[in-house]
């Protein structure tokens, strides 16, 4: 039995977060509080000795990832598939502005993983572009989950919407149940464990069989403030 630990870390706060403004794929940066949040998360997660760190290319995620990487002497890999949900016409607008122009639309968006703002992505779209990254990591990182690297996680640093969509897809939840995964706080994280029946050495066919991995949710929306209770 091989067990792969996967941590999905949300970026620290930005001024858009503080002002309830919708970012999507706009390339915003961390606020002073966001940098402090990233440092606090890194102080906890560095003790897990990450095997590797992969980040969205958007600055708010990349800078959060860099703080953790510096604590562990790692280089951050960048993958655009970890970008936040594209919010189309909503990007840059406050919640109140969206509600004024499209009453009820944000509720529909939160309650239906198939729904997307005009010009944007649905959560299903986001999962379809991000799940292949995890599949590639399962196939391409033979040390992940091996006995001599037991419990060393792969850390993906990304965004709240992407983390929710990717988690729901890995857990194979019915699409109707995806909204059950609520919002993530800034610089909080989720942990999943992927169980597969391959031997510790693993065969090539085992390593490539992503469909044989069964993911379980260990932690949702953990933070530095409650880490001692969940790690």
From TrEMBL:
Binding site for substrate: 10-17, 60
CDD domains in the cross-refs: HP_PGM_like (cd07067)
Active site: 11 (tele-phosphohistidine intermediate), 84 (proton donor/acceptor)
InterPro entries per record: His_Pase_superF_clade-1 (IPR013078), His_PPase_superfam (IPR029033), PG/BPGM_mutase_AS (IPR001345), Phosphoglycerate_Mutase (IPR051695)
PROSITE patterns noted in UniProt: PG_MUTASE
GO MF term list: fructose-2,6-bisphosphate 2-phosphatase activity
Pfam families per UniProt: His_Phos_1 (PF00300)
Name assigned to this protein: Histidine phosphatase family protein
Species name: Mycolicibacter minnesotensis
């Amino acid at each position: 039995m091989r067990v792969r630990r996967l941590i999905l870390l949300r970026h620290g706060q930005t001024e858009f977060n503080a002002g309830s403004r919708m970012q999507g794929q706009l390339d915003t940066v961390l606020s002073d509080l966001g940098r402090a949040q990233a440092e606090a998360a890194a102080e906890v997660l560095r003790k897990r000795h990450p095997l590797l760190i992969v980040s969205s290319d958007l600055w708010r995620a990349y800078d959060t990832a860099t703080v953790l990487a510096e604590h562990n002497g790692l280089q951050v890999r960048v993958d655009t598939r970890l970008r936040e949900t594209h919010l189309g016409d909503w990007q840059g607008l406050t919640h109140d502005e969206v509600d004024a122009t499209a009453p009820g639309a944000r509720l529909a968006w939160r309650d239906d993983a198939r729904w997307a703002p005009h010009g944007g992505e649905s959560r299903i779209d986001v999962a379809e572009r991000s799940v292949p990254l995890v599949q590639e990591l399962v196939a391409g990182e033979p040390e992940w989950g091996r006995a001599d690297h037991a419990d060393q996680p792969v850390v993906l640093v990304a965004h709240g919407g992407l983390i929710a969509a990717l988690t729901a897809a890995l857990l194979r939840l019915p699409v109707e149940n995806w909204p059950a995964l609520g919002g993530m706080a800034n610089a909080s994280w989720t942990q999943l464990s992927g169980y597969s029946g391959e031997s510790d050495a693993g065969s090539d066919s085992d390593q490539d069989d992503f469909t044989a991995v069964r993911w379980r949710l260990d932690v949702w929306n953990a933070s530095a403030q409650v880490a001692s209770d969940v790690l």
